[in-house]
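Why do we bother with holo predictions? Because pocket geometry can differ from the apo form. Keep that in mind while you read this record for dioxothiomolybdenum(VI) ion.
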Amino acid sequence: MNTGDKNTVVGKPLNRVDGHLKVTGGARYSAEFPVAKLTYGVTIQSTIAKGKIAQIDTKAAEQVPGVLAVITHLNAPKASGEKGGGHKVQVLQDNIVLYSGQHIGVVVADTFERAMYAASLVQVRYDEEKPTINMRDNLAKAYLPKGKMPGEEPPDLAHGNVNQGLAAAAVRVEQTYTTPIENHNPMEPHATTAVWQGDELLLYDATQGIFSTQEKVAGVLGIEPKKVRIMSYFVGGGFGCKGSAWSHVPIAAIAARQVNRPVKLVLGRIQMYGPVGFRPETIQQVSLGATRDGKLTALRHAGTSQTSTFDEFIEPVGKSARMLYACPNIETSHHLVQLDQGTPTFMRAPGEASGSFALESAMDELAYALNIDPVELRLRNYADVDPSKGIPWSSKSLKECYRLGAEKFGWQKRNPQPRSMRDGNYLLGWGMATATYPTNRSPASAIAQIMADGTAVVQSGSQDIGTGTYTVMTQVAAEALGLPVNKVRFELGDTKMPKTPVSGGSQTAASVSSAVHLAGNQARSQLLQLALADQKSPLYSSKAEDVIAEDGSFFLKNKSSASETYQAILARHGMKMIEARADAKPGEEKKKFSMHAFGSQFAEVRVNPDSGEVRVTRWVGTFGVGRILNAKTANSQLIGGIVYGIGMALMEHTVTDPHRGRVVNADLAEYHVPVNADVPPIEVFFVDEHDPYINPLGVKGIGEIGITGTAAAIANAVYHATGKRVRDLPITLDKLL
Ligand code: MOS
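The structure, written out:
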């Protein structure tokens, strides 16, 4: 049995099903739930990076009218910040300060203003110790971590012998590239509303993972996960910082229990620089060796990044180098330096975004050293199998991405000579880079119900972090159910719903669509079986494979007169609904195939030769990312990734005070992200790609690949424009003068 072509809504540029709610304010975010007897929590944060709280005086704060509690390590209930998985958190258990911005107390009051005011009255005296803040001054302390990187890959990996490959090379590029700390800055701040109902906890939380948050909070509080319910219907951007429940989430729960009333705890923008993760600073050494005709003989990518003193996060900058180019000798390694700062975390394409800046800049330098076109150099080193695993790709359309990108951009008109192209007084630069990101998938479940009125409700825990999960899953469900999209309601964001993974690693579309597809198919099949076995049905005794489902009816393929609506079948059986639940999980395919999305990025910049100001003026990105679930939201996702990359290339830089580890540009006035005026027309093209191996619908995640390669494409364009190679992000004008 199949659904008819008319119902093929997967791929269509459907408007966001939640668009109306969002633009009218009807979409409720985690800080917006009307809760009876609500109170307001405001945290007190450490102003030193290392040491002990010698004294904390809360008397004045406690006397502010409306204040219900001031909770510090002196009176907080027992909890464990190490339990429950995810990053280790600090939940007011002792007087030890591990980083600037650590939450060391929380004030709860009947209004937000009173809580803010009271928090400002808390006096803290520290026994301050000299912190280690600067990674570059402490490289001697770098160590090879024992833990695994994302994707379960080891931190160091070698194939062949890079030193021999370099010795045999006719041309070598050996350079160091650096990227600074960056902060995620989602529009919606971190926010948690904690409501206790007896011994059960309900949390409205801004999170990328309702189930991981449930586990974390339960672990920290020492209660059973089933006593904790997380709801998260709308999330105003995540980008990785909401991928792990940080300290303030269990602190809100602790505070609510203490005052015996619901507590809303929202972090201010300034509070989001330190205790909720960031992209760590990296120093990356790339060594490339090649023959005269441009074949790589050696590729080494060695990264060093920061972690905290109490937890380990590896920024996996070398992941792309392991798989992107054919080369007999590849070595990658990742070292860490412990600093007295918060724990860094995933930020949009962790590893691939920062790593591709180094690798793809180095490839551009090699192209110049060899006098070979940058696209041609990449084609000469095209990897037909995954070089680190020796297994084939499940699908790879990168050659077509290069070809299409070059064509749409007009690359053949490029004069490769630096400073050779101008637009009036401006120096014109054209640069390109490869984009790549792994295709991930985790177990996910869904439930589908076809109702007596001919509508359907489909549920799968999950989250929509702004990526369009509601919309694309409505399409997937409608197609599987044989219903029009306006008859299908897709629901998510509640741990009472079927379990799904965290929305990280670009895996939600691939994981959840598999479950929704399966549950929808099963519900439709069960309904059809009812009809086929029922003498009163016009479809009685037909074969399932001769039936198509369309617009809420079953038709016999060749005799369209024989048909029956879903409503009629359910009504005759006296059923309110028919329901199917499905659990989808990956099989052995990852062992047989290497699974990645690929793309190409082509950038044009105009550089003012007098001021050094760089403007990105044109962009073409081409991507082979499997089946597109929604042409409109997919296009927006890729544009969003590229915009994020423009920020990374030209603006974003978290500046830390070396004495006290405090972020000095902790707001959107000083931490610059691209605004509309910084963003040129961005053209995104998808290469038609069918991947039968990755998951039932052939979907590759697209949340992160868009940023990969962008910073390098811009740096390469800046070199082409100016003849200056900037190897330290961001490319600010002082580096060009
Ligand atoms: Mo994404 S940085 O894996 O949330």
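The mean pLDDT is 97.
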